[in-house]
């Protein structure tokens, strides 16, 4: 790779080549997985380029295309699957500086891809009392472009479903990796070409997202003597049409007691919990519902004293993938699995799976609206022993009808539905004919004959280049 020549082509652009910083910017939260940690530890790019606008993105892509240099886009690097890691080296394209909020109107906001999600909400709240429909639990640090290209859903999914559901992204502007890069406007069905494609087939340079009414959400934690008590409560709460919530998260004991350090004082031994974010105008009715359902309110931010609230993270930073992060900080042997408990049998499946791995898998659910029904994902904590045992646990989930979105794989297909996404593949042929964008992440591109049922892990040959 002629990196020196590329530097000359890109004169005037912001470039970083200090190897320590380049390596740091070549990483994401891949180390959540002991498997990815082993495979990707050494991966690094050659340089980081930080364009300030779309014209600079086009300059970088045209130059890299000419020289055959791979480009891996990056928001703020909070993804979990090694998504933003440059397996073939080359350029990290940091979109962090393209972070302006350029237009806010009823129901819509237009932003740069590098805008931090919490900053977008701050702007839309101040402008017109609106907020984004969904956000990951990495709200305070993640970029909107990274969320769309790498995330799936999160806080707010109990009302609006996932990111790839129709209507949850309105418009994307995407630049192609060609001799003369084009800027395309994608809407409607075309959005599926690039949402959750890990930046393998285009660089998002502008985002238009839908907005909803903003509230000062109230954090409440409800305690239960059994995990199934918390799970049934979560399901019943999600089905309450009149109560407005934004987060419903049942978590089995002893996870809260062991890992939620700042909240520990609120929990009794053996108590499982359900974390909730509820709109202020729904709070009284929610408390009445909780009383009737037999839940014990162990923490209510609306009535807690300033002393009690001091230093507590918000509920959403105990939920989604933050549960794993908090566990990992205390016990580095913890990892996790992401699964779906399909409707309508989800409660029976939750109960069955919860009983299968005592002391090894700890149940953590996130209730969501999924195709109009209330059901849940599991982000279960796993006490890791060996890769073989992890695979065995995955097979048991799947044999019981719970698909696993495997966070121990860096490819789109293995981390998703284990099949080719023909729409994304076709768009890659059109928008990145040389296969230079985030190489190694789309199996369908690297090896069209790959057998997803083989049970083997796909190993990208080009991985050697950057490690
Ligand atoms: C503690 C923790 C909690 C999390 N909680 C959630 C959660 O609740 N829900 C959820 O969905 N995810 C969650 N995640 C994963 C991740 O934080 C989110 O998906 C986040 O939105 C990613 O944003 P980012 O800016 O960090 O993206 P990055 O990690 O920088 O990038 C993610 C992917 O998008 C690509 N990309 C980035 N910018 C662009 C662009 N402009 N154009 C094209 N491709 C691009 C990258 O190449 C990469 O493949 C969590 C992760 C952690 C560590």
Automatic annotation (TrEMBL):
FAD-binding PCMH-type domain: residues covered: 40-214
Protein name: FAD-binding oxidoreductase
Species annotation: Mesorhizobium marinum
Protein keywords: FAD, Flavoprotein
Family annotation (PROSITE patterns): FAD_PCMH (PS51387)
């Amino acid at each position: 790779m002629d990196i020196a020549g590329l530097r000359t082509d890109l004169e005037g652009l912001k470039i970083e080549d200090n190897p320590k910083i380049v390596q740091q910017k070549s990483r994401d939260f891949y180390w959540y997985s002991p498997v990815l940690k082993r495979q990707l530890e050494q991966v690094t790019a050659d340089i980081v380029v930080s364009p300030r606008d779309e014209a600079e993105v086009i300059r970088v892509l045209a130059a890299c295309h000419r020289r055959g240099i791979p480009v891996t886009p990056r928001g703020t690097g909070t993804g979990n699957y090694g998504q933003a890691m440059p397996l073939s080296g080359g350029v990290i394209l940091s979109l962090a500086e393209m972070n302006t909020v350029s237009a806010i109107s009823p129901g819509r906001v237009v932003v740069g891809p590098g805008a931090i999600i919490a900053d977008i909400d701050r702007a839309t709240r101040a402008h017109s009392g609106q907020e984004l429909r969904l956000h990951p639990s990495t709200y305070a640090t993640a970029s909107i472009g990274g969320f769309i290209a790498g995330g799936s859903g999160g806080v707010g999914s109990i009302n609006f479903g996932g990111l790839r559901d129709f209507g949850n992204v309105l418009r994307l502007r995407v630049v192609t990796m060609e001799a003369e890069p084009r800027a395309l406007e994608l809407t409607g069905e075309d959005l599926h070409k690039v949402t959750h494609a890990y930046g393998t087939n285009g660089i998002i340079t502008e985002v238009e997202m839908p907005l909803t009414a903003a509230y000062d959400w109230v954090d409440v934690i409800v305690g239960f003597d059994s995990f199934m008590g918390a799970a049934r409560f979560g399901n019943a709460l999600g089905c309450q049409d009149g109560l407005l919530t934004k987060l419903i998260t049942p978590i089995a004991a002893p996870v809260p007691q062991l890992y939620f350090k700042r909240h520990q004082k609120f929990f009794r031994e053996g108590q499982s919990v359900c974390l909730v974010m509820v709109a202020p105008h729904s709070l009284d009715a929610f408390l009445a519902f909780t009383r009737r359902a037999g839940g014990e309110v162990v923490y209510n931010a609306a009535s807690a004293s300033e002393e009690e609230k001091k230093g507590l993270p918000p509920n959403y930073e105990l939920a989604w993938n933050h549960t794993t992060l908090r566990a990992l900080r205390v016990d580095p042997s913890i990892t996790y699995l992401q699964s779906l408990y399909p409707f309508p049998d989800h409660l029976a499946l939750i109960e069955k799976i919860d009983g299968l791995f005592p002391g090894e898998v700890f149940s953590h659910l996130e209730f969501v609206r999924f195709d109009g029904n209330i059901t849940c994902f599991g982000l279960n904590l796993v006490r890791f022993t060996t890769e073989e045992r992890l695979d065995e646990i995955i097979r048991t989930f799947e044999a019981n009808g719970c698909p696993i979105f495997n966070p121990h794989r860096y490819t789109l297909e293995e981390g998703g539905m284990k099949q080719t996404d023909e729409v994304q593949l076709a768009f890659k042929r059109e928008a990145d004919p040389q296969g230079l964008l985030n190489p190694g992440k789309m199996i369908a591109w690297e090896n069209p004959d790959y057998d997803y049922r083989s049970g083997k892990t796909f190993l990208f040959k080009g991985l050697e280049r950057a490690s």
